[in-house]
Amino acid sequence: MSVQLDRRSEIRADARAAYARMVEIRLFEEQVNELFAAGLVHGTTHLCQGQEALDVALAAVLRDDDVVAATYRGHGIALALGMTPASVLAEIMGRSTGCTGGVGGSMHLADMSIGLLPTSAIIGAGLPIATGAALAFQTRGEDRVAVAVFGDGASNIGAFHESLNMAAVWRLPVLFLCDNNVYGEYSRIDRTTAVLDLSRRAAGYDIPGESFDGMDVDTARTAIAAAVDRARNGGGPSLLEARTYRFAGHSRADKALYRPEGELEEYRKRDPIAVRRSALLAQGVSEGELAAIDARVADDIAAVVATVSADPLPDLAAMFANIWTEPAAAAR
Amino acid sequence: MSVQLDRRSEIRADARAAYARMVEIRLFEEQVNELFAAGLVHGTTHLCQGQEALDVALAAVLRDDDVVAATYRGHGIALALGMTPASVLAEIMGRSTGCTGGVGGSMHLADMSIGLLPTSAIIGAGLPIATGAALAFQTRGEDRVAVAVFGDGASNIGAFHESLNMAAVWRLPVLFLCDNNVYGEYSRIDRTTAVLDLSRRAAGYDIPGESFDGMDVDTARTAIAAAVDRARNGGGPSLLEARTYRFAGHSRADKALYRPEGELEEYRKRDPIAVRRSALLAQGVSEGELAAIDARVADDIAAVVATVSADPLPDLAAMFANIWTEPAAAAR
Amino acid sequence: MPTMRVNQAIATALADEMRADASVMVFGEDIAEAEGPFKTSEGLLAEFGPLRVRDTPISEMAFTGAAVGAATLGMRPVIEIMFVEFLGVALDELVTEAAKFRYLSNGALSVPMVVRASVGSGLGFGCQHSQTLENWVSATPGLTVVTISDAQSAYGLMRAAIRDPDPVIVLEPRTLYARRGEVTTGEAGILPLRRARTVRPGADITVVAMGQTVGIALDAVAACDVDAEVIDLATLSPWDRSTVLTSVHRTGRLIVVEEAPLTGGWGAQVVATAASEAFSALTAAPFRITTPDVPVPYAKHLEARFVPTVEDVARQLRTYLDTGAVPQPWWVLEGVSA
Amino acid sequence: MPTMRVNQAIATALADEMRADASVMVFGEDIAEAEGPFKTSEGLLAEFGPLRVRDTPISEMAFTGAAVGAATLGMRPVIEIMFVEFLGVALDELVTEAAKFRYLSNGALSVPMVVRASVGSGLGFGCQHSQTLENWVSATPGLTVVTISDAQSAYGLMRAAIRDPDPVIVLEPRTLYARRGEVTTGEAGILPLRRARTVRPGADITVVAMGQTVGIALDAVAACDVDAEVIDLATLSPWDRSTVLTSVHRTGRLIVVEEAPLTGGWGAQVVATAASEAFSALTAAPFRITTPDVPVPYAKHLEARFVPTVEDVARQLRTYLDTGAVPQPWWVLEGVSA
Ligand SMILES: Cc1ncc(C[n+]2csc(CCOP(=O)(O)OP(=O)(O)O)c2C)c(N)n1
Ligand SMILES: Cc1ncc(C[n+]2csc(CCOP(=O)(O)OP(=O)(O)O)c2C)c(N)n1
Ligand SMILES: [Mg+2]
Ligand SMILES: [Mg+2]
């Protein structure tokens, strides 16, 4: 088993490990934010604080051979699925050790060994791609499942509609998982979207639809497991809406001043990490144990930053590689 | 008033005229079919026998300053809105007297004097365009209405979803009128579409949706009038599904052999023209009067074929005209 | 050698690859039960069944994207975009996703998908169903753009496209579907991608064409009785610079015959490359014979003038060989347009 | 003359046209309340209100098509496609609808819409947010394709685009938004569409550039101390052949500097046209300096080499002037790629 799949196994079996992963994602994102703020990274990045529970729940449910098509807001899902913080950070920092070798950047993470298709920076693009992965599984008679993770804003784009209809008609093993974090860029969902219960849209395709609290990892896990099992057992696609919140701005530079006063604070009360912490404490895990996890993760992230910062940059040839496979490349 | 708008007025006020228009559309389509079969016209054409009631109902409801974005299956709607058979036929036959001067062809009819936007041959393209027309009306504070007419198959394309959502969010005066004629090309709706009551999709946008018998002109008129009034009075968009049937094949060469046995015959019992005829007879219109209408329309169509066949062909310069407006053309 | 129509050659190529490789599947609108609007998938559903041969909803974005996903997960999907215009609602999945997946996976992923799309004018389908639009796809590193020109190239390039590990779009000029030609089938009939085909060797002038215009160029050359070398570019991107440049170096003269507009048409890069890299070999100005900058008109006699005609290509060829000067396009000569 | 950033010049142009003409309206994603991701619509919502300045859902097909409909019904919509790649889900409405409506209405309809789209590399946005993609739109009769190159052209071409009776797409190189320049506002600041701008007159060589590469070409020329004529093509389609050809006839030498790939890039038609129509005036091979045929890489030092650099353009200019031979692209010279 690879390091990545080991990391995945952990969070399935062990509630502490799942908590630790959520903390890892949180601290990772905060670290990335600092690196950008300090001008150490160029380009842009989209952070996922507030959405950690969903990513970890999904990763915990999926089998190693299932696949996920996610988005530019993908650090959390990559880490949850098992990608190492070093691999993600190196990609963000444009190092040759990054998961795409540094040519992709923050918006483009990929590692098929953990089932992560290249995350797309085009809204909606992943839904047909996950549908196609499910098509491959169905055609070959495999009981694997594909998942498309996308935002509330993406539920308004054509690819959403086409994918759900086609997947429904073909009864494909795919889960459409909408991470409704209330905003699409700087627009609150109610300003762009005709229905607020996004799972209602499932009715237009005669497939199951459900909305749930995406900030509670157990709730999320239960809802996702049901839909994934249904898909795996020939029950076809589902539309799930996870209710989360984007604690950060849309991207690097965004201070999110457009949020109504008090909204962030309201949602912070449901901070998935705090929620999880309380639940574990209630289950008898000690405060000290949790503090130790927090500290260990923090140390790990700090160490990763140090290592990755010293990682090599890709050489110029890297920008010419991996465009065509070799015969084609040679023919040129 | 123009000839075209006079033709429109007729069908609003007079049930016999509405009947006559339906017969005109039917005979026109049969004539076009023959011309193609005889090899007198090149290219392709998409006929609308079975759908006449809907076209006439829509035209009867709309005000002269409302607009319609329709499709390549557009002869019926063009005639219903008031375009003359000569203008439509000349276009189909590539004559300079055609509504676009012969450069468009059967799939591309347009006449803004009757509110007919250029019909599009790209599935779904008309929905955003009608939405945009409604946007213009709303922005200027006009109480005009835009209508998108499209097929059952088109309800599966992305533009459908995006348009309905955006129109709903902006509460635009637009009617989305789906002419469900049971087939999209050679595919029966149930093989491509996850729901069969297409008006159910309205729920995904929180707008009114209704399905109705589109082969009865009165029923259609009532349903359309309600939706158009709503739009005109600030009530926003609606999704209507008219249940019709495509008596002909998809296009010129299609014999429609894929239809289940007996299906056509079943639908023929609801032939909109026969239905209308019975209704008029029941209202006391005499058989003789109706026969006279039928005969007059047949004569008119025959005369139109004779005239148009002698109409001039566009000269070569026509293919270079109307691409850019003059200053731009000159600058080239 | 059997003769077959181009659409049969395509269906045969698909069937042969499907027999050879269980991962090949096809989907698109009305391609299964109806066997394709242009009968390019005749017999496939019957032989390979509904899992591998599927009718899709009218959802180009969904099924193009599905091909990306299925290809990434080990299938070799071949999808049909009935008219290339319909890519206008789905281009993202091909250009911005499929063509980038290898790059975005450090070489770990292949996307061996094929998009087949019918293109071009000549059948009276009007301005929204008659464009060629290779410009939409041809500046895309990672995507191979192929155009067929006869039954053999349909068969041979289609099989090669399916076997290619990266995304390929095969453009099929619609007027060719009904045209017959001899076809070598089997492995021997497979043609290499990214190689131009010299369809007529010659010494006096190089004529580059693609798709529909290959036959037109050949006929014009025959009509002129000139020793022209006619090259079918076959793959537009990445194109076979060396075959073209070698020929131009030998002949010193170059004409490109295109079904593409003067402004933005594909032939410009052939002429530009020759001008840059074979400048001193050129004995006269290289030039393009293109369609005019107009939407494809419907009326038959107008549409007949849209693609360069044999007569017009022959006229230009003759003028060029006689005078060394670049001839005027017909619309200038006949005074119908500046 | 005030100086302003390019994004301010755009917002100013929009505001000036909105003041002058009540039919002008703007919509797009986050352009109203947030005033645009690149602040190109600053102040518009406040001044013109929510009917004329609207945030859309993430629905490029719907709002591009809505612009077609609104324009046809008498508005002058200006829409923002945040990154040009997003046209990949909406291209149909622009190319296959908007650009054909005049033709399909016997000249009765105008579609005076403007699509603004940010383009290009340089800000670390990766390969799905850094392309220029003018090839998607530039072979479209009926559609005018414009690229801005500085604050003045942003202001002047934007106003002209809005006033134009036909559809226009204005491509805005993203790296320029923050760049300052002097801007003549008002009627005097409006620049004509479909005209190239000679940004530096010169006698020895013609250098054609567009967008980001205009500044690069100017800097390279300055670094070389050569009397080059630098032409900003400004409108790519239909392009100003006469300004370019007149210059080439005078200088006898031509280089095009592009932010576009070697294969399929826009400069090919400039070189091809010069080769055809100014063949005898050319004293050396015309050539293109392009981006390599690669997706735009993310890592900063790689992306920095993607667009031709000032140093590299200067090197090629010098080699060319010294030797008359076409220089190698850097990736060949440095041995990083064939
Ligand atoms: C087709 C397309 N349109 C617009 C964008 C620009 N864009 C990037 S992220 C984003 C907001 C997406 O919102 P949502 O789907 O809710 O996802 P979130 O960012 O909240 O995770 C937008 C509009 C894009 N990337 N692709
Ligand atoms: C984007 C796009 N995809 C596919 C087609 C090909 N096509 C033309 S008509 C048609 C069927 C449309 O069915 P429906 O919407 O039910 O309309 P109908 O023909 O029954 O009136 C198809 C698939 C097209 N024109 N545009
Ligand atoms: Mg969101
Ligand atoms: Mg139908």
Outline the structure in words:
The complex is a heterotetramer, with 2 copies of chain A (332 residues) and 2 copies of chain C (338 residues). Chain A has 332 residues and is α/β, with parallel strands linked by helices. Chain A has a single domain, classed as 3-Layer(aba) Sandwich (Rossmann fold), CATH 3.40.50. Chain A has a 5-stranded parallel β-sheet with strand order 1-2-3-7-6, with helices on both faces. In chain A, helix 1 crosses helix 3 and helix 2 packs antiparallel against helix 10. The mean pLDDT of chain A is 96. Chain C is an alpha/beta fold. Chain C folds into 2 domains: 187 residues, Rossmann fold; 134 residues, Rossmann fold (3-Layer(aba) Sandwich), CATH 3.40.50.920. In chain C, strands 3-2-4-5-7-6-12 form a 7-stranded mixed β-sheet, sandwiched between helices. Chain C has a 5-stranded mixed β-sheet with strand order 9-11-10-13-14, sandwiched between helices. A two-stranded antiparallel sheet of chain C has the order 1-8. In chain C, helix 4 links the parallel strand 4 and strand 5. The chains are: A alpha/beta (332), C alpha/beta (338). The complex binds thiamine diphosphate (2 copies) and magnesium ion (2 copies). The site of one magnesium ion has 6 residues of chain A, from strand 4.
Q: What is the overall number of helices of chain C? A: 11
**Shape category of chain A:** globular
First-residue to last-residue Cα separation of chain C: 48 Å
End-to-end CA span of chain A: 38 Å
Strand content of chain A: 5-15%
How large is the radius of gyration of chain C? 20 Å
Provide the spatial order of strands within the biggest beta sheet of chain A: 1-2-3-7-6
Count of helix runs of chain A:
12
